[in-house]
Amino acid sequence: MAFALLFLASLWAGLQNALAGGGSFITLPSLMLIGMDARAANITSTVALFPAQIAMGWSGRTLVAGSAGLAFRTLVILSLIGGALGAVLLLVTPSSFFARLVPWLVLFATAVFAWGSFGRKGDGHRALGRGAAAAAQFGISVYGGYFGGGIGFLMLAALTAAGLAIRNAGATKNALAAVMNASAVAIFVLSPEVRWPAAAVTSAGAIIGGLIGGLMLRRINERLLRALIILIGVTLTVALFRRG
Description:
The protein contains ten helices and no strands. The chain is globular, with a radius of gyration of 17 Å. The protein is an all-alpha fold.
């Protein structure tokens, strides 16, 4: 019964990750509810969601694009370097500092995305130039390798502010999330903290949900998708502040 509920929660987490991000804040408490301590749940969640991130990135590969004059390959390189640096920082510094920043980062990302979706005028306007977009992706990648909560919202905010349409931003975010988390997973996969049966159930649900979400990116009304992402962002922000 516990694993059945975990599968359903993971299914929604995969769908949410594909559309907006924040799926780890569904899988993490779900894993804790079946008896894991916070550290084991966090490590297991990271490992379990990684295959779904690969699947989501692959399913949306035709929509992937660069931003603000940066080639997608450049974004990949920035994500790899930043994710590796974040993973190293995770080993040498306590996670509590970044954990306290998460609600504020998600709140900021949601506000930026809302402004970019409904507040600005005209098509094709870019709030971020080439250098700012590169710095934003690198900074998000460092954070993603270190903790990762809310990176989907942060990347959506940065990519849309750099001029990408929502469908392209969503697909690009999914691909880059897999890239930046690769370093952390390479470290965690050897950890005795990974609870493999729960990780398998979580991974299966997240992959299926992610594939469904990837298909929805091609079909859902763009304004409706923007409104849904903002609603999820507000809900996630409130939940994170209440947790803190």
